[in-house]
Amino acid sequence: MTSMAEAYMPRGMGGNVVSKIIAQRWRALNVMIKLLSSSPYLQTTMSMNSSVNEFILLGLTQDPRKQKAIFGVFLMFYLATLLGNFLIVVTIKRSRTLGSPMYFFLFYLSFADACFSTTIAPRLIVDAISQQKTISYNECMTQVFAVHFFACMGIFVLILMAFDRYVAICKHVCSVLVTLGWVGSCIHSSAQIVLALKLPFCGPNMIDHYFCDLQPLLKLACMDTYVINLLVVTNSGAICMVSFIILLISYVIILYSLRNYSAEGRRKALSTCTSHFIVVVLCFGPCIFIYTRPATTFPVDKVVAVFYTIGTPLLNPLIYTLRNAEVKIAMKMLWCSKV
């Protein structure tokens, strides 16, 4: 009977084109963000739609003692997130044994998680001990774009990993699918930023959150936001809901296929699937709660958002790779040889 690692790992992918592909995508993203922030049309739209030049992020709490705790705890979480994802990226890139499509996708999942965490966590950490918690209008809009871009990329990679469990995907198809994931993420985040730029702000500028997102911004807009919120639900809400259903179906199929496994194989498979499913629920549960409802905000929204903005990028390396025997062996071979 095959092991769980073998069951999750398709055969036959080699090559070392990951670094070139990711460098190209990163350069394209940087150019995209620069064009976004420097576009004369968007600059004109910003000045016409808003008399607010900056926002104040209220953060998770206003209690000074709790803010110090937040600084220490989330700094450790962020550093652990970067370290875990960095180890995975370097190990997969350098190892000759991790050449299957699953690890190709895991490379991009770790990269997206690290970038996603970096768009949110550093400001949360700094604001926890800073007296000035302001963020400029342009920075806020850029954060909206970056958050949705990397979050959507991570979701698309998870779907590709679920698809890869049943269909053997060749190297070139993997590259095409990842490219489509980048394009889809760009379309999604561009739609979000277009909606955000249409919001006029003419009054309060205090965002009751720790990062810029459409839901708290809708609360500050001085206009009827019913249509825009409906578009947010159609865009972000639909992506979260459909992606969660696809992943849920994939786990149901895996559980159904376990009837052909031995008792030991079923035990290992159930252990792996359970941990994977917990991370999926922690990621998509809060997203569905936030993005599939009317334009209302609750105090608990900030706490709920912590699960998918901080928790998921931290847990993904532990769940998807560090529990994988082949990854651990590859890490030992790679890093021990360098010591």
Summary?
Belongs to the G-protein coupled receptor 1 family. By secondary structure, this protein is mainly alpha-helical.
Can you describe what's shown?
- Residues 84-320 form the G-protein coupled receptors family 1 profile domain.
- Belongs to the G-protein coupled receptor 1 family.
- Keywords: Cell membrane, G-protein coupled receptor, Membrane, Olfaction, Receptor, Sensory transduction, Transducer, Transmembrane, Transmembrane helix.
- The chain crosses the membrane at residues 69-90, 102-125, 145-163, 175-197, 226-257, 269-291, 303-322.
- This protein has helices at residues 4-8, 18-38, 40-49, 64-94, 101-128, 137-164, 171-197, 214-220, 226-257, 263-291, 301-322, 325-336, and strands spanning 54-57, 134-136, 206-207.
- It is mainly alpha-helical.
- It has a three-stranded mixed beta sheet.
- Helix 4 runs antiparallel to helix 5 and helix 4 (64-94) runs parallel beside helix 11.
- The radius of gyration is 21 Å and the shape is globular.
- The two termini are 37 Å apart.
- Residues 1-18 have low confidence and may be disordered.
Rg, alpha carbons: 21 Å
Distance between the termini: 37 Å
Structural class: mainly alpha
Largest sheet: 3 strands, mixed
Q: Any idea what the shape is?
A: globular
Notable characteristics:
single chain, 339 residues, mainly alpha, 3-stranded mixed sheet, disordered N terminus
